[in-house]
Amino acid sequence: MDKEFSIEETILYTAFGVMVLAALYASAQKIKGSKLDKYTTIEFEVDNEAVSTTKDSNKFIKNTLKNILAKSNSNVTLIK
Q1: DSSP three-state, residue 44
Q2: Are 25 and 47 members of one domain?
Q3: Phi and psi for 51 in degrees, rounded to 5?
Q4: Structural domain tally of the chain?
Q5: How many CB atoms lie within 10 A of CB 24?
Q6: Confidence (pTM)
Q7: Does 35 lie in the same domain as 14?
Q8: What would the pLDDT profile of 12-28 be if each residue is shown by its tens digit?
């Protein structure tokens, strides 16, 4: 193994190595990102003074939560 690489070969192998490392890093970030998306939650507070009655407010809250869940694949937590 006394063969020395020319400058062109060294540049080519180095560039190839960098591209392989970049691809591995990008795939690891994609896998990590997909795991985080499963556990994303949305929390919001409802101002009870803005809604007229409890029955109407519960119906409004349920419809709002239903709309949020329909638009995204996230968990919704209601804080009262």
Answers
A1: strand
A2: no
A3: -105, 140
A4: 2
A5: 10
A6: 0.39
A7: yes
A8: 999 999 999 999 999 88
Token pair belonging to 62 = 């349920």
Kindly report the length of the chain.
80
Helix (H) / strand (E) containing 76: strand 75-79
Range of the domain at 62: 41-80
**Is 76 in contact with 69 (CB distance < 8 Å)?**
yes
* 75 vs 41: CA distance, rounded Å: 5
Q: What is the pLDDT of residues 24-54, one digit of tens each?
A: 999 888 777 655 555 666 777 766 665 555 6
CB atoms within 10 A of CB 76: 15
Same domain, 45 and 78: yes
